[in-house]
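Design a sequence for this backbone.
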C-alpha cells in the first residue's frame, strides 16, 4: 500500500513573511496594454516593473536606473555571496558561515570547529 501525501499550508504566515519572500525571490510584472477602435491601435503602453532586494536584483542581472550609486553599503552587501544557515535558515556570508559561525544562531561548521581546535594552545 503506497503512502499518500497530502498538501499542507502554513497558517502562521504574516505580511512580513510575504514581503521577505517577495524581496528574496523577486517579483517581475511585464504588461502590454493596447487600446484599439475598429482594429486601429490608438494607444499602446508597455509596462515593466521589478520588485526585488538589491541582492536578488544583482544575482539575476537586473538593470538599475542610471545614477544608482553602486558604492553604497547596501550594494556591497548585495554583492557578497550568501548561503542559508542549516540551523536557522537565515542567509549569511559564505566565508563567515564556513570559517566562523552563524551570527544569528551561533551554528558552527566542522571547518570552524577545526580552526578553533588548531588555534588552541597545547597543554604543557
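Sequence:
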Amino acid at each position: 500500500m503506497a503512502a499518500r501525501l497530502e498538501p499542507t499550508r502554513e497558517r502562521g504566515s504574516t505580511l512580513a513573511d510575504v514581503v521577505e519572500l517577495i524581496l528574496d525571490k523577486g517579483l517581475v510584472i511585464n504588461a502590454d496594454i493596447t487600446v484599439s477602435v475598429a482594429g486601429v491601435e490608438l494607444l499602446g503602453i508597455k509596462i515593466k516593473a521589478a520588485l526585488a532586494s538589491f541582492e536578488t536584483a544583482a544575482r539575476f542581472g537586473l538593470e538599475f536606473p542610471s545614477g544608482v550609486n553602486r558604492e553604497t553599503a547596501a550594494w556591497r552587501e548585495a554583492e557578497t555571496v550568501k548561503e542559508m544557515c542549516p540551523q536557522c535558515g537565515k542567509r549569511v556570508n559564505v566565508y563567515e558561515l564556513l570559517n566562523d559561525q552563524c551570527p544569528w544562531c551561533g551554528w558552527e561548521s566542522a571547518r570552524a570547529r577545526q580552526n578553533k581546535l588548531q588555534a588552541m594552545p597545547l597543554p604543557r
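The chain has two domains: 14-61, 80-124.
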